Amino acid sequence: MIDTELLKILACPVCKSDVILKDDKIVCIKCHRKYPIRNDIPIMLEEEAEINEK
After folding, report:
1. Which parts of the chain fold into alpha helices (H)?
2. In the CATH hierarchy, which fold is given to the domain comprising 4-48?
């Protein structure tokens, strides 16, 4: 589980927009990339992201 305070300071490394927690992934609200969470650690690397159209 990701701490809500941590979620507030995270930003998408690609477009620098805010992110939200959705379906056990960190999701960018602008470019819609989905970043995995492994062992309660968000993996905020562009090459790890799933690219979604929305």
Report:
1. 4-9
2. N-terminal domain of TfIIb (2.20.25)
Question: What are the sequence ranges of the domains in the chain?
Answer: 4-48
Q: How much is the pLDDT for 52? A: 73
The answer to whether residues 21 and 7 touch, using CB atoms and an 8 Å cutoff, is yes
Reduce the DSSP state of residue 4 to 3 states and report it: helix
Q: Which two tokens stand for residue 10?
A: 């995270």
User: Per-residue pLDDT tens for 23-36?
Assistant: 999 999 999 999 99
CA quadruple 46, 51, 12, 39: dihedral, nearest 10:
-70
Q: How far apart are CA 26 and CA 42, in angstroms?
A: 7
Closest CA to 10 of 50, 2, 54: 2
> pTM of this prediction?
0.89
